[in-house]
Amino acid sequence: MTYISVNQVSKQFRRRGQVTEALRDIAIHLEEGTFVSLIGPSGCGKSTLLRIIGGLETADEGEVLVEGVAPLEAQSHKRFGFVPQAPALFPWRTILENMRLPFEVNRKGGRQTPEQTEEAKELLHSVGLGDFLNAYPKELSGGMQQRVGIVRAFASGAPILLMDEPFSALDEITRERIRYQLMEIWDSHKKTVVFVTHSIREAVFLSDKVVVMSSRPGRVTEIVDIELPRPRRHELEETEEYLQYVHHIKGLLRERWEH
Ligand code: ADP
Ligand code: MG
């Protein structure tokens, strides 16, 4: 059984008589424990597809199955962790208290166990935030806050993480650093990640598969298997093989723009 399967999914939005065809005939099959990126121009339906996989939006046609069940059912079993563009941290709570949120929201009597609190602390340490456990979000830079959002998803217990351009608000240097940290955390946790990005280099570095999409309507142009060795460290980005993947995907995206 495929872990997550997206079968011929189409989606239209109707607003004030205007119809936007957001997705057409999307078919993707993802294996458990893999890292998959969705890449494509703005408006090609990446967020919509991510939301359909996570049960936050419904498809007009086609079907999504997550661990053999519909996304809404998977969601009710707490199978998803979301990482949005801006980290949703409560300003009146400390960083460690914010790490508890996924255990409280939508969980009957949910609380972090002492082991889970320890894991949350370890994850914060691993991304250089060990000195900020009791700080408030406003004392952290944007990049630091985003790291909290990411490690919180890893600490949440959900096996599938859906990340929608989590690095888009960061400067290039911070963004690279967080990319390498995300890779190290993923190496040790092996969750299934669906990651939306605009950055080709980021997608190739992180992923097992890159789904290249075209816009209006959003379709799959090609699914590129990234057969680079793991664990991946930043030196990889200097290798010929890595650059060939980047070049190939750039070409796929450029073709679409020229139409
Ligand atoms: P991306 O994340 O790739 O930038 P989106 O999934 O956000 O693209 O949007 C795909 C298309 O669907 C866009 O044309 C967008 O304007 C449209 N769209 C997205 N959400 C809605 C909505 N709730 N209502 C109407 N149109 C929407
Ligand atoms: Mg989007």
Task: Please describe the topology of this protein.
Elements: E1 4-15, E2 18-30, E3 35-39, H1 46-53, E4 61-66, H2 71-76, E5 80-83, H3 95-99, H4 101-104, H5 114-126, H6 142-155, E6 160-164, H7 172-189, E7 192-197, H8 200-206, E8 209-214, E9 219-225, H9 240-258
Parallel strand pairs: 3-7, 3-8, 5-6, 6-7
Antiparallel strand pairs: 1-2, 1-4, 8-9
Bound molecules: adenosine-5'-diphosphate and magnesium ion (MG).
Residues 13, 15, 20, 22, 42-48 line the site of adenosine-5'-diphosphate.
Summarize this structure briefly:
The chain is an alpha/beta fold and 259 residues long.
The helix content, as a percent range, equals: 25-40%
Question: What's the Cα radius of gyration?
Answer: 18 Å
- In the sheet with the most strands, the strands line up as 5-6-7-3-8-9
Choose one word for the global shape.
globular
- Binned strand content: 15-25%
**Overall pLDDT, averaged?**
93
Bound molecules: adenosine-5'-diphosphate, magnesium ion
Q: How many DSSP-defined strands?
A: 9
How far do the termini sit from each other? 37 Å
Largest sheet: 6 strands, mixed
Order of helices and strands: EEEHEHEHHHHEHEHEEH
Number of helices: 9
- Flag low-confidence runs: none
